[in-house]
Design a protein that fits this description.
CATH topology of the largest domain in chain A: Rossmann fold
Oligomer: heterodimer
Distance between the termini of chain A: 41 Å
Distance between the termini of chain B: 33 Å
Shape of chain B: globular
GO molecular function (chain A): 4 iron, 4 sulfur cluster binding; alpha-D-ribose 1-methylphosphonate 5-phosphate C-P-lyase activity; metal ion binding
Catalytic activity (chain A): alpha-D-ribose 1-methylphosphonate 5-phosphate + AH2 + S-adenosyl-L-methionine = alpha-D-ribose 1,2-cyclic phosphate 5-phosphate + methane + 5'-deoxyadenosine + L-methionine + A + H(+)
Largest interface: A-B, 84 and 70 residues
InterPro entries (chain A): PhnJ
Number of strands of chain A: 12
Family (chain A): Belongs to the PhnJ family.
Strand content of chain B: 5-15%
Order of helices and strands of chain A: HHEHEHEEEHHEEHEEEEEHH
Number of helices of chain A: 9
Radius of gyration of chain A: 20 Å
Helix content of chain A: 25-40%
CATH class of the largest domain in chain A: Alpha Beta
Keywords (chain A): 4Fe-4S, Iron, Iron-sulfur, Lyase, Metal-binding, S-adenosyl-L-methionine
């Protein structure tokens, strides 16, 4: 880190009177302890003394507390929402950390050391040393089958996951397919069934064996969980109905990608629509390197 | 070329400056001062302090001003500030017995030591719009007689002396601690995550911070038969209490200040067993400032939540601890409901992809084509745990 940016950091702190990255050090220590436990027991939901953040619950307060805890002055932060760096809430959260921690920010996935995300995993494969922080609305994968925390805790402890398979089976019986398309449950390290947060199931395979550290923060529900690097992450399925990811007949309007998650954009009121990469950085990278030419 | 709608920093800044302008309203009118709000919007200030868990009328008034009068937004502002404050120590329990009473009523006795004191209340006002206020006229106020109220003994203590009601510390309140004379410090859900089953101290804290509207509705539901508990408003008292702290280096209590609180003692249906004589039970409510509706609702819900402890069937929402405690905080609920305003393009797209596929298959089946997926070829036998061998397919999925 250059002296200039160091100075900027100290100025930032002095200016707004809050600790580095907003949270006080005692709170960070408490969260770090929970993070260590979460890493030690992959997929297990660790209760933590979540604090009120200056952003509303449900808007990323869990992810923000995790990011605030792991981030240091030398980190480079990227924040995405729906895969994009320029959606309003991503802008707001990135700005929060630029303001309270004075850290460098980036839109480039490879350049970032900490990436906070809502609803997507970047298309560019993550590398060793990177930390991916997920914002989690409902950490409990069994919540919609059994709303009671007292029950679900027991179910996890006993690995009583039959109900989840029954739910998936009922989908197949009614629709011919497993009808869960996002927040698709996974089994971590052969034990805990985990909610991967509402990422599309398209992203599920990226969690498996990732060299990056994946941390999950649920602020309102006050839970933290983690997938350490190189961990087994399996999406639940059946032998005769194997897990599969979404695909599109179309390609990205901008970069021509035929393998990334595409957002549908309605262009007129007569059924006109185009498809574009949801990961804006990935799309730009391809445009800049001329990758689009190869495909189109 | 189409450019997807994105909110840049500029858009956010513009939105906020527009908000500031809107909040200020017509600039030809004088601006509201925080002191005016504190003095003239006192009940709103009290609610913000109560649910914001911070006794500071000035900051609560500031929050109301900043929030354009949106109470939940103001509570949010106060909570977000509160959470950054260091906590030095816990106060000693406030002695509401020694309250400097400004209002005290009991619905259980016609008259009682200390008397019934109406105090400043909207009760018995006829809800007729007062057009004098509209014309900016101040009503001539007759100064109430400065008659200090004697120390009021607690209504429930009369009953307790006779053994007619359970003692104030219910069984569930007596926590195990090494030294019985020194009760364990009460739990604090702002530091530790809520854990079920919750003890009464935690429940009362959650209810005190809980949304007035939500608690009011739950309290009402108990009156209409969803977990009925036969309440009598044994006593409602409002006034100033002394907050004392014991700094470690002093070793004796000093007064940190006075706070205005509203307290409600509810007398509820009796219980008894073969070994215990029947007696009334209690529900308790306490709120900052003049927050009577909140204190009453809290007391009813507190009593309802004691169902498990008192051996009652838990059959109604108000008696269900997980249901009540998980949903009573209005920052939790307003945050999560309003997060629906955030983009969900990706999840929605995922649903679209699936729905189109299902519809396509449906049409194919309908038009007599071979059904592609109708019959699950080998439906998993539900009597067995479905065998899931994801290992191989996981590898297949892995690019």
């Amino acid at each position: 880190m250059t002296t200039a940016s160091l100075k900027q950091t100290t100025d930032t702190q002095a200016e707004n009177g809050y600790n580095f990255a907003y949270l006080d050090e005692q709170t960070k220590r408490m969260i770090r302890r929970c993070l260590l436990k979460a890493v030690a027991v992959p997929g297990y939901q660790v209760p933590f003394g979540g604090r009120e953040m200056p952003l509303p619950y449900g808007w990323g307060t869990g992810g923000m507390q995790v990011t605030a805890t792991v981030i240091g002055e030398n980190d480079v932060l990227k924040v995405i929402d729906q895969g994009a760096d320029d959606t309003t809430n991503a802008v707001s959260i990135r700005r929060f950390f630029a303001r309270t921690a004075g850290v460098a920010t980036t839109e480039s996935t490879p350049e970032a050391s900490v990436i906070q995300t809502r609803h997507r995993i970047p298309e560019t494969p993550l590398t060793r040393g990177q930390i991916l922080v997920y914002q989690v609305p409902i950490p409990e994968p069994l919540r919609f089958i059994e709303p009671r925390e007292t029950e679900t805790r027991k179910m996890h402890a006993l690995q009583e996951y039959g109900v989840m398979h029954v739910k998936l089976y009922e989908d197949i019986a009614r629709f011919g397919h497993i009808a869960t398309t996002y927040a698709y449950p996974v089994k971590v390290n052969g034990h805990y069934v985990m909610d991967p947060s509402p990422i599309p199931k398209f992203d599920n395979p990226k969690m498996h064996g990732s060299p990056a550290l994946q941390l999950f923060g649920a602020g309102r529900e006050k839970r933290i969980y983690a997938i350490p690097p190189f961990t087994r992450v399996e999406s639940l399925d059946f032998e005769d109905h194997p897990f599969e990811i979404q695909g599109w007949d179309q390609t990205c309007e901008f970069c021509g990608s035929d393998h990334s998650f595409l957002d549908e954009v309605v262009t007129d009121d007569e059924g006109g629509r185009i498809f574009i990469c949801s990961d804006t950085d990935y799309c730009n990278q391809r445009l800049n390197t001329g990758a689009s030419m190869e495909v189109v | 070329m189409y450019v997807a709608v994105k909110g840049g920093e500029k858009a956010i800044d513009q939105a906020h400056s527009w908000l500031d302008e809107t909040r200020r309203g017509d600039t030809s009118l004088p601006e509201l001062s925080v002191a005016q709000i504190r003095e003239q919007m006192g009940l709103a200030v009290d609610r913000v302090m109560t649910e914001g868990s911070l006794y500071d009328p000035e900051l609560a008034a500031l929050a109301l001003k900043q929030a354009s009068g949106d109470v939940i937004e103001a509570i949010f502002l106060l909570r977000a500030y509160r959470t950054t404050l260091p906590r030095f120590l816990a106060s000693r329990p406030v002695e509401t017995n020694k309250m400097a009473i400004r209002r005290r009523i009991s619905a259980a006795y016609k008259d009682l030591p200390g008397g019934q004191v109406l105090g400043p209340t909207y009760d018995y006002t006829h809800r007729l719009l007062d057009f004098t206020l509209l014309a900016n006229g101040e009503r001539s106020t007759t100064q109430p007689a400065e008659e200090s109220v004697e120390d009021c003994p607690r209504v429930l203590d009369f009953l307790n002396n006779e053994g007619l009601i359970e003692s104030p510390l219910a069984k569930s309140d007596q926590k195990q601690s090494g030294n019985p004379s020194e009760p364990e410090a009460p739990a604090d859900l702002t530091r530790q995550p809520l854990d079920y089953p919750a003890d009464r101290d935690l429940r009362l804290q959650a209810l005190a911070r809980g949304d007035e509207g939500f608690l009011l509705a739950l309290a009402y539901s108990t009156q209409r038969g969803y977990g009925r508990n036969h309440p009598f408003a044994g006593e409602i008292r409002q006034g100033e209490v002394v907050v004392e702290i014991v700094p470690e280096e002093l070793g004796f209590p000093i007064i940190a200040g006075d706070i205005l609180v509203t307290e409600c003692d509810m007398i509820n249906q009796f219980s008894g067993t073969e070994t215990e004589a029947p007696r009334f039970t209690r529900g308790y409510g306490l709120a900052f400032g003049n927050s009577e509706r909140k204190a009453l609702a809290m007391a009813l819900v507190d009593r309802a939540l004691r169902a498990r402890e008192l051996g009652e069937d838990v059959v109604s929402p108000a008696q269900d601890e997980e249901f009540v405690l998980a949903h009573c905080d209005n920052l939790d609920s307003s945050g999560f409901v309003s997060h629906l305003k955030l983009p969900h393009y990706v999840d929605f797209q995922s649903e679209l992809v699936l729905l189109r596929r299902l519809r396509k298959e449906f049409e194919e089946r309908k038009s007599g084509g071979q059904s592609p997926q109708v019959e699950p070829t080998t439906a998993p036998d539900l009597n067995d745990e479905p065998t899931v061998n994801t290992q191989q397919r996981r590898e297949a999925n892995q690019v």
